[in-house]
Amino acid sequence: MIRQRLKAVLAAGAVCILLCACTEGSNVTKETTVKVEQDGTIKNTIIENFDETLYSGEELQSMILEEVSAFNSGTGGKSISIEKVEVSENQTEVVLIYAGASMYEEFNEVTFFNGTMREFYDSGIETAGITFHTKNNEAYGMEELLKFEENRIIVLEKSKIEGTIKVETPAKILYVSDNVEFLSNKSARISEDTEDLAYIILKGSE
Questions:
Q1: pTM for this model (two decimals)
Q2: What is the number of domains present in the chain?
Q3: Which residue pairs from 24-30 have beta carbons closer than 8 angstroms and sit at least 24 positions apart in sequence?
Q4: Are residue 143 and residue 73 in the same domain, yes or no?
Q5: What's the per-residue H, E or C state across the chain?
Q6: Are residues 9 and 96 in the same domain?
Q7: Same domain, 195 and 144
Q8: CA-to-CA dists, residue 60 to 84, 97, 181, angstroms
Q9: Range of the domain at 16
Q10: Which has the closest alpha carbon to 158: 116, 189, 181, 201?
Q11: Which value, in Å, is the radius of gyration of the alpha carbons in the chain?
Q12: Nearest 5°: CA angle at 109, between 105 and 111?
């Protein structure tokens, strides 16, 4: 698949997802992140080691531009915008902005849902056998949580070649599925070794 080819290029020569990006007087750890904004747009920051013996930085930029331009032409609008493509010291950082979860889903050929619990129930996405936990490790079944229709839920599938993914949310995280760990009130991390859908339930409108 074309989109999987793009991900494979970004992963070329990767040793791990977590990279230490050091600047003078600071030590900042960056990782591949999916940030869900309040307005529904998705900011995807991809951090990878990069082997320039396989692809040059210019070739990478050209390929990403080509893929995004082709996708936008096919959807009839600016569904994805490129915020950043940077290669330095064998490391690449790519930042893409998606108009919504459905655009991320289509471009990356994975499942991505962002909506209310009611919308999720109506979507037909799998619900059977999913267990959740709170930050304090209290366990709940999906059936117990579906009744809180005002809450929101993010469902994200990693591609097979991706490692961990940090997810940043616009509201407080209440529950996560067993393949997700809490990082803070508004961030969580999808496990590297999971092949199942990841579920994150957020506090809805008051």
A1: 0.86
A2: 2
A3: 30/93
A4: no
A5: CHHHHHHHHHCCCCCCCCEEEEECCEEEEECCEEEECCCCCEEEEEEEECCCCCCCHHHHHHHHHHHHHHHHHHHCCCCEEEEEEEEECCEEEEEEEECCHHHHHHHHCCCEEEEEHHHHHHHCCCCCCCEEECCCCCEEEHHHHCCCCCCEEEEECCCCCCCCEEEECCCCEEEEECCEEEEECCEEEECCCCCCCEEEEECCCC
A6: yes
A7: yes
A8: 12, 17, 32
A9: 2-106
A10: 189
A11: 18
A12: 50
Same domain (yes/no): 62, 142: no
Cβ atoms of 181 and 167 within 8 Å: the answer is no
**pLDDT of 16 above 60:** no
Regarding whether 128 and 68 lie in a shared domain, the answer is: no
Looking at the fold, whether 47 and 132 belong to one and the same domain comes out as: no
The total number of residues written for the chain in this structure: 206
Among 106, 135, 156, give the residue marking a domain's end.
Answer: 106
pLDDT tens-place string over residues 58-90 = 888 888 999 999 999 998 888 999 999 988 877
Q: CATH number for the domain including 99?
A: 3.30.70
